[in-house]
Design a protein that fits this description.
heterodimer; A: alpha+beta; Copper Amine Oxidase, Chain A, domain 1; 6-stranded mixed β-sheet; elongated; B: elongated
Chain lengths: 472, 196
């Protein structure tokens, strides 16, 4: 009975995180499952070697023969003694043959890899990260004492970590990059806004956690070689040393729904005008969006468009914040909260689709209900006071697309988080120019769309700046 | 010496046993065939029989990305709730056709429609409806608008519509169209006007 209960608890809780081994080499970076046998960690040897060269296996009874490039290895089920090119040595524990798969103890993997590859191998055993040859990615970090202060991290190769924000820190998890620790695991900076960063490795991944008393944002540049971390726009306007504000008492009833993990706009100091435009690359992280083709995910296309659009807008002097500037998971509530906190004149969310052609512009179709109470707006209909200015922006964009002969339609859509935004808000769904999804990745097409959007915003800039307040 | 009649008896019994084995093997094979799950490609057809009525279905067309009002004659039961269910089943039947103008994933089905006073209709679709739906703002919007407008145009008194999937609320249909909200029929009518 107890065993059944325990099993049920494990099933319900999803069980412990599966163990992984990450292998980094000049040829490929990849991750493999690690299984436990008789208290030791094991990994499949063929799977580990396959991405690195030509590997084949022959099973003769209890003997498992591996050929990798021109080298031969011989392993016997249940024995520690193995031979590679005729040279015998012992594994840390028995070799296991399981359904034709040859499993070797993880602790012996560096020796085996060294013998098969003839290259120096560096194994971080506790974190299960195997570095083959000189592949390590190094980084440096320094705080620039600008206002607001920024932490600039330079990497020796492009990186694309998963980014998560938590109260008090910003975490960057590197699963595919052979990132190695700097001299010290903890870096301290002479800055109250960004006092420290820590490096740690576990389960086949490296993580940098940047501590900060205020919410932090990460931005990528230099093709992913530089990550700049700065306080979120609204947080930057507050002194870092200020004591935390007690949370405002929520209004009675389910009127104002404040998403978890974000700051309610009523709780922060207003600093309108820091960013004129907020560009939101939809989807990201675990959420891939539409599969535009076998290789093309919507989240990647929207990110590429967002970066290009920021460049175009900034070239026109429009200060722009890209909400998701990496492969990050952000909920719709988080996107709306971050935008509302930044108080932009316009919010643009980007989507991509393989159906149809040209561009479709969307303004919010508001759901039923919605009752504002004093300064607190109903979350689901927060856009209601900004519909006119959203339509103005939409018209400006449509006119610019028409000028460039890009087919354009303007529609209402039940598309979150447009209805939660307290400024002009327009969704843009970019379809390929002539029905071929691969063209969504074409730099020329992306540039054409980005230029049209930037010109459209520029054309209605004065009208957006005078955005009316919410209906009370 | 074994008596002749005993030998014949044993031979007959062996032949019978052999015959029975072959027959049992054959029967087991047939049972296995019957138990093989059949791919479910269509919703349960309307169980309604009898005279048909003319209704207006709002049918999505992906190619130009529009919604068109289309007259159809379908058998409808007397009850309001049952009529609502049959309407939406007829609509989904169009989308599940191979030559559909707006195809849905195999097995997509409306499980139930509940009419809750005052004026609220709750559509409960099955998981296949959302899991197999293509992802995109317009393509999802067309599905939502088609369901809501078809219901509102044919069942008087409906002014709000909520869409559930497998009896539960979902954040979006397939990553875009909001399913966490309750749709206002007036708002959807504006959306439909733009989609026509």
């Amino acid at each position: 009975m107890a065993a059944i209960l325990l099993a049920a608890v494990i099933v319900v809780s999803g069980g412990p995180e599966a163990k992984r081994l990450s292998v980094y080499s000049a040829t490929a970076n990849y991750s493999l499952p690690v299984t436990e046998h008789n208290g030791s960690d094991y990994v499949g040897l063929l799977e580990t070697l396959e991405p690195l060269g030509s590997a084949s296996v022959r099973v003769d009874g209890r003997v498992w023969r591996l050929r990798f490039n021109n080298l031969d290895g011989e392993f016997s089920n249940g024995k520690t003694r193995v031979r590679v090119q005729g040279q015998a040595f012992d594994l840390a524990s028995n070799f296991l043959l399981e359904n034709g798969r040859g499993l070797v103890p993880l602790s012996s993997l560096p020796t085996l890899m060294q013998r098969f590859l003839g290259t120096p191998v560096n194994f971080h055993e506790t974190s299960r990260r195997l570095f083959i040859g000189n592949v390590a990615v190094h980084f440096t970090a320094q705080v620039n004492k600008t206002i607001p202060p920024t932490l600039v991290m330079y990497f020796s190769s492009p990186v694309n970590p998963m980014i998560a924000t938590e109260p008090g820190k910003l975490r960057m998890v590197f699963t595919h990059e052979p990132l190695v620790p700097p001299g010290s695991q903890t870096l301290t900076f002479d800055s109250a806004a960004i006092p420290s960063a820590t490096f740690q490795e576990s389960n086949g991944a490296a993580e940098i956690a940047v501590a900060g008393p205020v919410p932090l944002f990460a931005r990528f540049s230099d093709d992913g070689r530089t990550i700049t971390i700065a306080p979120a726009p609204q947080a930057a306007a507050r002194p870092a040393q200020s004591p935390p504000q007690p949370p405002a008492a929520p209004p009675a009833g389910p009127v104002s729904q404040v998403p978890l993990g974000t700051m309610p706009p009523a709780n922060v100091t207003s600093n309108p005008g820091q960013y004129f435009a907020v560009v939101d690359a939809s989807h990201g992280g675990d959420e891939r969006g539409a599969a535009l083709s076998d290789q093309l995910a919507e989240k990647d296309v929207t990110l590429a468009f967002a970066r290009r659009l920021r460049q175009e807008l900034q070239a026109q002097g429009v200060t722009t914040l890209v909400l998701r500037d990496g492969d990050t998971t952000l909920s719709l509530d988080q996107r709306a909260s971050m935008t509302n906190v930044a108080h932009p004149a316009i919010y643009i969310c980007l989507h991509a689709a393989s159906q149809g052609s040209g561009v479709r512009l969307y303004t919010a179709m508001l759901p039923t209900g919605g009752e504002n109470r004093g300064a607190f707006l109903d979350w689901d209909t927060a856009q209601s006071g900004f519909r006119a200015v959203s339509q103005t922006a939409e018209s400006g964009l449509a006119a610019e697309f028409a000028k460039r002969e890009v087919p354009v339609r303007s529609l209402l859509a039940p598309l979150r988080p447009l209805n939660n935004i307290t400024s002009a808000a327009v969704g843009i769904e970019i379809a390929p120019p002539a029905g071929k999804a691969a063209d969504l990745n074409s730099p020329a097409y992306q540039q054409l769309v980005a230029e049209a959007v930037a010109a459209g915003i520029e054309a209605v800039r004065d009208k957006l700046g005078a955005a009316p307040g919410p209906a009370r | 010496m074994i008596p002749r009649h005993l030998m014949i008896g044993v031979a007959a019994m062996l032949a019978l046993a052999l015959g029975m084995s072959v027959y049992v093997g054959h029967m087991r094979g047939r049972v296995r065939q019957t138990e093989t799950p059949v791919a479910y490609t269509h919703p349960v057809s309307a169980p309604v029989q009898g005279p048909t009525e003319q209704v207006t279905l709002y049918v999505a067309y992906d190619d130009p990305g529009v919604l068109r009002a289309q007259a159809a004659n379908i058998p409808l039961p007397a009850g309001r709730q049952e009529r609502a269910q049959e309407l939406l089943r007829a609509l989904l039947g169009l989308y599940l056709d191979k030559s559909s103008s707006h195809s849905l994933g195999p097995g997509a089905e409306v499980l139930d429609v509940y009419l809750v006073d005052p004026g609220l209709a709750v559509i409960d679709a099955n998981d296949a409806f959302a899991d197999g739906h293509r992802s995109g703002v317009l393509v999802e919007e067309l599905t939502v608008a088609s369901l809501v407008q078809t219901l509102a145009a044919n069942i008087p008194g409906i002014n709000r519509v909520k869409i559930l999937v497998g009896g539960k609320e979902r954040e979006t249909l397939a990553g875009h169209a909001d399913l966490s909200c309750t749709y206002d029929v007036t708002g959807v009518s504006q959306m439909v006007a733009e989609l026509q």
